[in-house]
Structures are given as C-alpha cells and as structure tokens.
Amino acid sequence: MQIRENIYGPDEINSEFSFENLISENESKIINLIFGMTGDYHLAQDLAQETFLKAFKSKQSFNGQSKISTWLYRIAVNTTIDYQRKTCVRKENPSDELPEKSDMSQDPDQKCQKTAMRDILFEAISELPTQLREVYVLREVNGCSTKEVSEILNISIELVKWRLHKARTQLRKSFTEGSAYKNVGKFKLKHTGIE
Fold this sequence. Notes:
Order of helices and strands: HHHHHHHEE
Largest sheet: 2 strands, antiparallel
C-alpha cells in the first residue's frame, strides 16, 4: 500500500491547522534527512524545528509548483548546511543517538543484530563526503525520487545520479575492505529503520 502525500497549495499552508498537519506528516523525514547529514540525532531535532520555523515564516514563498516535501527538504538542507558552515561541526558516532523503534515481539538477538547493522551503516554514511551523503540520505533513506533530489539540492539530475553512484560505490568499498564491516549480512535502510 502506497501512502500518498497530501497535496497542499499555497492557500492551504497558510492556515494554522494545515501547517500543524504539515509538520506532523513530514517531521520524521526531515529529522532523518538532517540526522543523515549531521550524524547527531539531538542536533537533527533542533535543526528540524528551525526548518519548520523558517518554513512557517516563509510560507508565502511556496507557490505550489513542487511538492510540499520538496520545498521542506530544500529548507532543511539549507538550514543544515548553514549550521555546518557556522560551526564546522565534526560528526560524532551517529548511531548512538538514533531512537529505537520498540517492538516487543522482536527476537532480542535479531534486535541486537539490527542495532549493530544500523551502527555500522550510519558510521559508513557519516564518513561519506558531504555532497555524496546529502544525495544518498535523500534518495536511499528518505526515498525521494532522483528528480526531487535534484530540485532539493538545486543540481542537475545527471549530477544526482553521479553522486548517488559514487556514494554507493564508496559504501560498497567500505563494506568489502573494512574489517569492522565484515559479515554484516544483508539489510535495507528505510526512514523507519533497518529491515
């Protein structure tokens, strides 16, 4: 079952109720995007709040020509880049602060294995150069289309494809050459966690 994004026009996001819905529908994706870029979950929460504050203040600039999530992602990316430029932050171990999805029915061994795989994956993602990490997180973690990533980062579709290929190649190389990544197994990363 595919979840369809609610369509917001320029007039709809000006109402307070709709803007609250907009936040609740997009908050986890924005936090995941920023977390993927910074490697710090608490900072991602703070920058997500700043993103929504900027979006609220500039809601008149949304013209409805793109999806609302694309507009929000662009604000989130710019907010994160601005923060990183100001502080020259060095990434910490990103997986330490990622909240766990609680599932009481899950086998403890399987849960432990997923946690270890998540730690390894986010460590590898955090080592990617910023431009590759942005594209990888938007495309692979948040599930944006290539066109959406192009619009969010204001780069060509060809450049998105090239950076995504480069990011995948570097991650694959990390997993095959790095001793910490041996015998990780197969997994798929989604915005809801590792499957």
